[in-house]
Amino acid sequence: MLYAVILAGGVGSRFWPKSSSANPKQFLQIFGDKSLLQTTAGRVRPLIRQDCVYVVTNDRYFDKIREQLPELPPENLIIEPEARETAAGIGLAAVRLARRDPQAVMAVLPSDHFIGSEQDFRRCLSWAAEFARNHKMLVTFGIRPTEPKTGYGYIKMDRLLVNDNGRRAYHVAEFTEKPDFDRALRFLQSGKYLWNSGMFVWRVQEILQAYRRHMPEMYQHLAHLYEILGTPDEKEIIRETYAKMEKLSVDYAIMEKADNVAVIPADFAWDDVGSWRSVERFLSQDNAGNIVNGLHVGIDTSRSIIESEDLLIATIGVRDLLIVQSDRAILVADKERDQEIKDLVRRIEKRNLREFL
Question: Where do the Nucleotidyl transferase domain residues begin and end (predicted)?
């Protein structure tokens, strides 16, 4: 059976001040009247039974997820005692699924990505699950690059493994983390590289074997957790064991090392919604090229992103600005420098102004 594991523990500091540690990006309504998390969960529902959808998060967001996804069984929230990157969280989800269904196929999905056609996504996911089940491979979705982006990881396609009426899977030659511009341009021009979407599909037994092979110490911790799941001391033992696990992404811990990794080029529009500028492609603009959410009155204002929670934002003679008002702070920035918001958040932390984050 196919299960969805949605990763929903991050903060999304690049969307500050709209996103905060108390209300991170996955809970925001960026593309309509549903949050990114609600949209992600709804996207898989026609394909995956509701009781087969899991969310990996932490204690702080338990109530918020229950509020946004009331139909989800409470036991389907997998609580991380602390943030330790995706290798630990995905491993914990894998052992939970293995206890429930040793033959499970597991789709790992970030909670805060944009997907264009949901129907195309489900078709691709269904085919990927069948491929992973039949070929015992670790599968990831690759996105065909449209520009030499330096903020994405890249996947190099190797030999063709399957061509099923145009649906293709390739053996992965290598992963490259966030190349510089010149290298990203070469990747784009070669036609052999895809963006790494951070979405994965695999048999639960296959990913656990990959942990055993490539991360033996972490595998021992996961094997211990497998044994104690359902016992009275489960929560305390998970807390103690989790603290011993390395802080590693699943890409670095497993995907870059394994030799049974396949990539399927996705045929749906995708964006990781990693910055304010990333939403420009998907939201409607006024005649001056502004994206406005909230109350705004302007004179000679163009090509700006203006987000107001409860105040009037008034502008005169500005262009290419990012203006975001929340209940805690107001951000005014050159739109082209939105990637620096994460650095700005660190500066605010160093100033001991955490109440504004």
Answer: 4-280
Determine if the peptide bond prior to 17 is cis (ω within 30°).
Answer: yes
Residues 159-180 have pLDDT tens digits of: 999 999 889 999 999 999 999 9
Residue pLDDT, tens place only, 240-276: 999 999 999 999 999 999 999 999 999 899 999 988 9
Q: Which residues sit opposite 146 in a β-bridge?
A: none
Widest pairwise Cα distance in the chain: 65
Q: In what order do the strands lie in the sheet with 321-325?
A: 291-293, 305-308, 321-325, 330-334
In sequence order, what are the beta bridge partners of 155?
Answer: 175, 194
E strand residue ranges, the chain: 2-7, 53-58, 77-80, 105-110, 114-115, 138-143, 154-164, 167-176, 193-203, 261-265, 270-271, 291-293, 296-302, 305-308, 313-319, 321-325, 330-334
Residues shown for the chain: 357
Q: Looking at domain 2-274, which CATH architecture does it have?
A: Alpha-Beta Complex (3.90)
Whether the CB-CB separation of 106 and 3 falls below 8 Å is answered with yes
Would you tell me the crossing angle of helices 204-214 and 85-100 to the nearest 10 degrees? 130
Q: Compute the distance between CA of residue 265 and CA of residue 342 in angstroms, rounded to an integer.
A: 30
Locate the domains of the chain by residue range: 2-274, 277-356
Contacts with 59 (C-beta within 8 Å, 6 or more apart), sequence order = 79, 81
Dig out the tokens for 237 from the structure. Answer: 């033992």
